[in-house]
Design goal:
It is built from 3 helices and 6 strands; from the N terminus they run ααββββββα. It is α+β, with helices and mostly antiparallel strands and about 130 residues long. It folds into 2 domains: about 45 residues, no CATH class; about 70 residues, no CATH class. α1 runs antiparallel to α2. It is elongated and about 70 Å long. The protein starts with a helix and ends in a 7-residue tail after the last helix. Keywords: Membrane, Transmembrane, Transmembrane helix. Pfam families: bPH_6. This is PH domain-containing protein.
Length: about 130
């Protein structure tokens, strides 16, 4: 994507004249492409990774490890765009890796996450 915006900015866009692009305009297009590429790459890195000790949630800008003992519930109903972890300190943590747009597979993953929370807290999940 960066290469594409670089080619567009410095090769394709016309220079000079009444409708031409200045060098500042071309650099702006190039850096916009860099920013867009960075933002899209962050979407590709979103994930939730469980371990025996807890779960690591990587969202767009943050990465957080939460021990199983701190998680009191999992929410995914009510039209929420992504799964939420209810934490013991009354905060909620979005798990952007489980998104409503994924349909039935997202519901299955949310149920799987809820089961993992119950199992790792020593409870038996109700099906």
């Amino acid at each position: 994507m960066v290469v594409t915006f670089g080619v567009v900015a410095f090769v394709v866009l016309p220079t000079g004249g009444a409708t031409g692009w200045t060098m500042l305009d071309k650099w702006a297009v190039f850096f916009f492409g860099c920013f867009l590429g960075w933002g899209l790459s962050r979407w590709g890195l979103v994930k939730a990774e469980p371990s025996p000790e807890g779960i690591t949630v990587r969202n767009l800008l943050t990465k957080r490890f939460v021990p199983w003992a701190e998680i009191v519930g999992v929410q995914f109903g009510g039209g929420r765009p992504w799964c939420l972890l209810d934490l013991a300190d009354t905060e909620q943590l979005a798990v952007m890796a489980i998104q409503r747009a994924d349909g039935p597979s997202a519901e299955a993953e949310a149920s799987r996450l809820a089961a993992l929370v119950h199992v790792n807290q020593g409870e038996i999940p109700n099906d």
